[in-house]
């Protein structure tokens, strides 16, 4: 199958540091190629991929201080996609709704995975206007704000099985990974660790938009003796960081569409203590791969019981539900459903070729 993967340009594929969407696009692209498909990736020029790369810009937009208008570059990317659309059996977009005004005119099947939150009021106007565009959710919870749209399916994110190894959790600390932002609730994580009497290591980024929140609410908490702020880390550091942690704290306060770090922790055999919001109850098997809680008190109690969980079982749960292979197979199933006529024509032409060859052989004899 000839597949176009269209990624946002804010980060490279995969990202150098933070960037969940671009990381998923990378894992999916590489797995599709491993399974024998021909993939073209529309992404930034500094992306590292086995696919054919199409790009007009050398560097990810977030890392380029000279970028003033990121939408301008995405418009160029959309034009590149339009000009090459005939080359593909299907086009898979990861750019939210940017392509909606033209994708239906391409004459090719298009599908869009939505990676972000969908409960923002302005989004209702867009998705109500383009109700016929096939959409993929990354959790069932993510769908709730958009009822009357064309959901093609839900596909959970996946990681390569060999990306991380099971750790032993002997670091005597709990981990926090994510943005320092109100919805991620780093303050909760710090309080949970304090009340449980354990050290917390925080590997987190601070966006410019979140600087006021950090300065007002979080900075003073970092001075506590049980808190170690590491800063933003990349994929290469995550395995050791998560594998040595007794648990990952995921005390979110918003409808998280998926939560990539939860399955990264599970891949390391590290159980997750997560607040019951968004996708959390879909990802975490309570009492097996972690604990789903509603209060800080429940989180502290869960942390005190964390050694009762089997880290081998946590890893096996990841392997059975959240591998890149499972993710790719799920997407391929959706792709197949969208291009049945093409595949039927290929099948019929092959059968006809067999009939004709048999007829020619008989004629020759």
Feature tags:
365 residues, alpha/beta, Rossmann fold, 2 domains, seven-stranded parallel beta sheet, six-stranded parallel beta sheet, 13 strands, globular
Kindly state the mean pLDDT as a whole number?
92
The computed structural class is: alpha/beta
Number of strands: 13
Q: From N to C, what is the helix and strand string?
A: EHEEHEHEHEEEHEHEHEHEHEHHHH
Number of domains: 2
CATH homolog superfamily of the largest domain: Glycogen Phosphorylase B
Main pleated sheet: 7 strands, parallel
Q: In the CATH hierarchy, what is the architecture of the largest domain at level 2?
A: 3-Layer(aba) Sandwich
Quaternary state of the chains: single chain
| Basic shape | globular
Strand order of the largest sheet: 3-2-1-4-5-6-7
Q: Could you estimate the helical fraction of the residues in percent?
A: 25-40%
Amount of beta strand:
15-25%
Number of helical regions:
13
CATH class of the largest domain: Alpha Beta
The gyration radius over C-alpha positions equals 23 Å
Low-pLDDT stretches are 342-353
Head-to-tail CA distance between termini: 38 Å
CATH topology of the largest domain: Rossmann fold
GO molecular function: glycosyltransferase activity
Pfam families: Glyco_transf_4 (PF13439), Glycos_transf_1 (PF00534)
Protein name: Glycosyltransferase family 4 protein
InterPro entries: Glyco_trans_1, Glyco_trans_4-like_N
């Amino acid at each position: 199958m000839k597949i176009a993967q269209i990624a946002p340009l804010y980060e490279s594929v995969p990202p150098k540091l933070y960037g969940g969407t671009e990381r998923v696009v990378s894992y999916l692209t590489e797995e599709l190629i491993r399974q024998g498909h021909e993939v073209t990736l529309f992404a930034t020029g500094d992306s590292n991929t086995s696919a054919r790369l199409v790009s007009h810009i050398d560097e990810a937009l977030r890392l380029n201080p000279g970028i003033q208008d990121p939408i301008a570059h995405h418009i160029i990317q959309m034009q590149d996609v339009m000009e090459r659309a005939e080359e593909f059996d299907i086009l898979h977009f990861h750019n939210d709704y940017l392509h909606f005004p033209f994708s239906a005119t391409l004459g090719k099947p298009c599908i869009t995975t939505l990676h972000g939150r969908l409960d923002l009021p302005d989004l209702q106007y867009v998705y109500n206007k383009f109700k016929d565009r096939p959409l993929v959710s990354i959790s069932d919870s993510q769908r709730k704000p958009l009822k009357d749209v064309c959901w093609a399916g839900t596909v959970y994110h996946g990681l390569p099985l060999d990306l991380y190894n099971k750790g032993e959790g002997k670091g005597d600390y709990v981990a926090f990974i994510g943005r320092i932002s109100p919805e991620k609730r780093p303050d909760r994580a710090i309080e949970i660790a304090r009340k449980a009497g354990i050290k917390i290591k925080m590997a987190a980024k601070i966006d410019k938009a979140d600087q006021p929140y950090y300065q007002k609410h979080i900075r003073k908490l970092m001075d506590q003796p049980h808190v170690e702020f590491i800063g933003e880390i990349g994929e290469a550091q995550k395995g050791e960081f998560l594998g040595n942690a007794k648990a990952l704290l995921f005390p979110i306060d918003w409808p998280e569409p998926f939560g990539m770090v939860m399955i990264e922790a599970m891949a390391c055999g590290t159980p997750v203590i997560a607040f019951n919001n968004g996708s959390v109850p879909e990802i975490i098997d309570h009492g097996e791969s972690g604990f789903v809680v509603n209060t800080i008190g429940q989180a502290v109690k869960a942390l005190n019981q964390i050694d009762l969980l089997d880290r081998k079982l946590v890893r096996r749960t990841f392997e059975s539900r959240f591998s890149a292979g499972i993710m790719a197979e799920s997407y391929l199933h959706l792709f197949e459903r969208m291009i049945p006529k093409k595949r039927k024509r290929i099948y019929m032409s092959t059968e006809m070729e067999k009939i004709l060859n048999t007829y020619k052989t008989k004629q020759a004899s």
